Automatic annotation (TrEMBL):
Species name: Flavobacterium xinjiangense
Keywords, in A-Z order: TPR repeat
A Pfam family hit: Esterase
Domain of life (superkingdom): Bacteria
SUPFAM superfamilies: alpha/beta-Hydrolases
Matching Gene3D superfamilies: alpha/beta hydrolase, Tetratricopeptide repeat domain
TPR repeat residues: 328-361
Protein name in the entry: Esterase
Stretches of the chain forming a coiled coil according to its record: none
InterPro entries: AB_hydrolase_fold, Esterase-like, Mycobacterial_A85_antigen, TPR-like_helical_dom_sf, TPR_rpt
Amino acid sequence: MKQILLLLFFSISVFSQKTTQPFESQKLSASREITIGLPASYEKNPNKKYPILILLDGDYLFDPFYGALNYGAYWDDLPETIIVGINQNKNDERIEDSNYDEVDGTPSGKGAQFFEFIGAELLPYLEKKYRVAPFRIIAGHDTTAGYLNFFLYKDAPLFNAYISLSTELAPEMENRIPEKLTNLKQPVFYYQSTSDGDVKKLQEPIKQLDSNIKLVTNPLLNYKFDYFKGASHYSLVLYSIPNALYQIFESYKPISSTEYTDKIALLPSGYVDYLTAKYDLLSKQLKLNIPVRINDFKAIEAAILKNKAYPELEKLAVIARKNYPKSMLSDYELGLMYEKTGDQKKAAKQYQKASQLEEIGDLTKDMMFQKFDDMQSLTPKK
């Protein structure tokens, strides 16, 4: 438990820009305060787009989400993300914002206005001003956790991922949410949590919703439920956040030693296909297109060498050329293929070409010169 708490508040400066500003809303006929956290790389990478996380109860949820994403992004386990917290602590705005009709269980009054504020004003503003990838997450706690489910009611859900912490459900949500998830036409991530120390009146409806969702067989749904022992209504938030983020961004993680040992190294063939499928899934699920990580290249290369599937190095070289066209990686992989298949002359040529290109990872010009000399010494003299 203590380790998770330390994880969330481990202070590493990944986000370089955090600002709080007023947002004039015509839908609400009022000014609302929002806090925006931009990733450290935002200014350095003008072509890069980032997922966006909208936080209800931003006044107290911003910092714990900020800390978890900081930590995950530092280790490249989680993608850098634009965080936007809507502050709702003034005059108990969170209750008015979450208002719904007690009969039909849909937003009404101020709640309907707040719904339009997020969908018709805030998101368009953010996506026009910032480089936002087409992957949206929304999160809330108790009252606002229940409210965020209204966005699922739309025929085309406004968000790709929902983080619902100790949910206070509106009427019929136990049935409506599973129905909507059953009829999904696009992938959706859904996370919810409670605990044995949670507010008693919330626990049973949450458990019922969990039971109903577990009956959903739609392959487009990625669902996770956590029930924490020994956590309160408030502390369960700190346990939930990393679990929710790692559920949603599972496909983003680089190849780990466990993944390599348990999955990749055991394959009889298709190592490069595994790598391609991994990044295709990332693009499909998270709408993110990132270069294949150097360490992932090295993991696939290691599996190829371990299993003596040397022709696959040529396929790996093609991917390297696409991802790092100015680097020596592609020619190095080709040189390695020729070296392992006994063609020292062609290997020497590829290593020589590689020595003229940019260094990358642990591949250096000196290493390529040495490889060239080694292949030259093994090449039969005429």
